[in-house]
Amino acid sequence: LFPATLTYDTLRFEYEDFPETKEPVWILGQKYSVFTEKEEILSDVTSRLWFTYRKNFPAIGGTGPTSDTGWGCMLRCGQMIFAQALVCRHLGRDWRWMKGKRQMDNYFNVLNAFIDKKDSYYSIHQIAQMGVGEGKSIGQWYGPNTVAQVLKKLATFDTWSSLAVHIAMDNTVVMEEIRRLCQSHLLCAGAAASPALESEVLSNGCPEDVAGRERLVLWKPLVLLIPLRLGLTEINEAYIETLKHCFMMPQSLGVIGGKPNSAHYFIGYVGEELIYLDPHTTQPAVEPTDSGCLPDESFHCQHPPCRMSIAELDPSIAVGFFCNTEADFNDWCQQIKKLSMVRGALPMFELVEHQPSHFSNPDVLNLTPDSSDADRLERFFDSEDEDFEILSL
């Protein structure tokens, strides 16, 4: 099996179709057969938002670069994993994009959050400039951990999505921390006055008999990002089965990472190969039309996705999960616990109920838009995991 090849004289990719194999294809928690569901596989892949290098966008910071070619690949991968969280939040995992079909408003709201302009929540402009406060100059390469930390800070401004973003440090997921982050409390009287809100409470697993309680608990949708290092210079084979299982979970947002010289957004696997979307194509920046519509075809990868051997994966990655409800989170915890018992699968991270005593303050990164925690954030940015090289084109 050969991965996608690059012909340097034209800088155009030639993509292979999926291999004819009995092995199942897993894409972000969905299982497919190549023999009977090839169209469904390609539809699923095409429906993911695909962010690539762009050129001729407004200068970052007013005087900075107008293209991210050569340095923005991990920032684009961060956009892709976060866009998948917003798709799950506002459109649902089963939503599909079709060329030429009029999409709903929420789709364009999600897409507009990533457009290359300074006032989009998660634009290349916002990510690059937010990184300056964390010691990353504009145009400098990010590692998976840094882009995750920056996206967490940007998400606090996105009141439309109202996400709880948690980054699990030290290879440890603390359930107590996540529940505290995701659970917001409302007075009963206020909640009862809003039937829509009350139905949301009930759908989040609360008992119907709430009259005797002073407060109701609402669950904010969770984006969980776990930066990991799965080896020194190459991935430790003992983690491969566990990594595969992450793509099998319905809560999967995929993985950001790559191989030396380039970052990719991994959305699934087949056999011993990872399936990924590649940001290393430079496209012109997109401008809304006079009618306010956004030409969206270039944000969807309409050819078979790239594949690479899992063994080639750089060991520095970040794994993502989305839990829309508390029940989703409880289910995810159960799956992780079961995974720790799978023979031949070494756990990539630890799941614990309470914060270990040696941990730092868990609320350091629970930022609000007006907080200034750059000094405390610095120690979370492990420069050792940023040892990718800049791709020179």
UniProtKB/TrEMBL annotation:
Domain of life of the organism encoding this protein: Eukaryota
Cited function: Cysteine protease that plays a key role in autophagy by mediating both proteolytic activation and delipidation of ATG8 family proteins.
MF-aspect GO terms: cysteine-type endopeptidase activity; protein-phosphatidylethanolamide deconjugating activity
A matching Pfam family: ATG4_LIR
Family: Belongs to the peptidase C54 family.
Enzyme class, UniProt record, top EC level: hydrolase
Keywords: Autophagy, Cytoplasm, Cytoplasmic vesicle, Endoplasmic reticulum, Hydrolase, Mitochondrion, Protease, Protein transport, Thiol protease, Transport, Ubl conjugation pathway
Native organism: Acanthisitta chloris (rifleman)
Domain annotation Peptidase C54 catalytic: ranges: 39-335
Entry annotated with the keyword Mitochondrion: yes
Name of the featured protein: Cysteine protease
